[in-house]
Amino acid sequence: MNNKEKISLIKKLDIMTTLVPFTAIILLCILFLTYPEASGAVLASIRSFLGNELGSYYLIIGLFTLICSLYMAFSRYGSIRLGDCEKPQYSNFKWGAMMFTAGLAADILFYSLCEWLLYAGEPHIKDMGSVQDWASTYPLFHWGPIPWSFYLVLAVAFGFMLHVKKRTKQKYSEACRPILGKLVDGPAGKFIDLIAVFALLAGTATTFSLATPLLSMAVSRVTGLPESRFLTIAILIIICAVYTFTVYFGMKGISKLADSCTYLFFGLLLYVLIGGGQARYTIETGITAIGNLTQNFISLSTWTDALRTSSFPQNWTIFYWAYWMVWCVATPFFIGAISKGRTIKQTVLGGYFFGLSGTFTSFIILGNYSLALQTKGILDVMGIYQATQNLYQTIMAILETLPFFKMGLVLLALTMIAFYATSFDALTLVAASYSYKELPEDEEPHKHVKLFWAILLMLFPIALIFSENSMANLQTVSIIAAFPIGIIILLIIFSFFRDAKEYLEHS
């Protein structure tokens, strides 16, 4: 790349949106490393205020986006085609695979294996009934229709903006233009975009910092290497190398990696379902959980625990809605981009089909297998967790009950790496597009800009791993970042309806 090309590239970039988050993340990394206890205390106080005093804000936005997504699909807006091509750009399988793997990362494997365990000791679960029924229901709720609605309403808005209106600014602020008008070209637009990038980095940090230690432990058990933070960071660097290499090849590379990830994922599920010997219990408990969720969906979505008898929604439901909201910066852009040629109805309903079938299958098979070990007295999973207070060691004990467990660990490690790489391919591509002042829908960011974001996305997770932050602190990062994102999501939804209404009237 010669000097003339460098100057040309710099002129195309939005320097503020690129460098301000970079500088802020470097400063935050230094603070987390230098003052881990003080930074944790500050995070805890902010979380207490947002979760306890403003928790209903997150719950209301969640229910509202679900209703909006269904209205988009079944109203007159559902017939709008995202783009002027006659058929979808990608086949159903490729589209579903890219959307599912880009939207979840390896977190789904981590939480599928242990989430019921986190709920089992909660007083609220005991008040509702048996651990058997409700600890298997709540994971489906927290990874179900409302979280996916965050992705899908924004994917429709961004797809409409890119493929129908042909706008060249691939930013959150541009999606707000129908409401804010020329304000998006000034400080208000810059502020929205900066908030979006900060949220993107917060979501990335939470994802990597929660699930990577499990991957590190699996590698340690298979290879015999000692468990350490340095092994975890070495794995992060390998993942970074994989997704950086793939993203260099653009959408073709991402599509192939997503296909591979999907095959590995379902291979792992089959291994646990058949090898674990608990198929009947697993499937029947899953059917019961889906029935519970269907019957109690509205009450689960609106329960605020006003008397704080257990603070269950503050500790869990609000965290999950916030967690998915911070991922809404990148994933919906990616889903919107790959949905060219589909109608809005096809995008929403197809998104729910592929998204929910993937998440529900994962939680039913992986989660209910470990629940079977507990309820049938095969392995005291809850006892192990209470004794060690370590989710990763507990998950290892669960996996060791499977036949040829080292082979299972290799499959788990490969699947997690593939999930991470596919998810962060999409994140890197969107973040790099965000760095441009303007970028036409069919043009991809420069490889050097992708490389910059590929490295930047790793810095914050590494700092959090070194500072040994607890899960509560990692959750808080998402809850804080999601608060302003919720307001922006509402702006984008109302902007879409205004824009789409004008489009239909003129059409």
Automatic annotation (TrEMBL):
Gene Ontology cellular component terms for the protein in this record: plasma membrane
Segments traversing the membrane: 12-35, 55-74, 95-120, 140-162, 191-210, 230-251, 263-283, 318-338, 350-372, 409-436, 448-467, 479-497
InterPro entries on file: BCCT_transptr
Key words of the record: Cell membrane, Membrane, Transmembrane, Transmembrane helix, Transport
Source organism: Lacrimispora xylanisolvens
GO molecular-function terms, A-Z: transmembrane transporter activity
Protein's name in the database: BCCT family betaine/carnitine transporter
Membrane topology: Multi-pass membrane protein
Transmembrane helix keyword on record: yes
Keyword Repeat: no
Record PANTHER family: HIGH-AFFINITY CHOLINE TRANSPORT PROTEIN, HIGH-AFFINITY CHOLINE TRANSPORT PROTEIN-RELATED
Pfam families in the record: BCCT
Subcellular location: Cell membrane
Family stated for the protein in its record: Belongs to the BCCT transporter (TC 2.A.15) family.
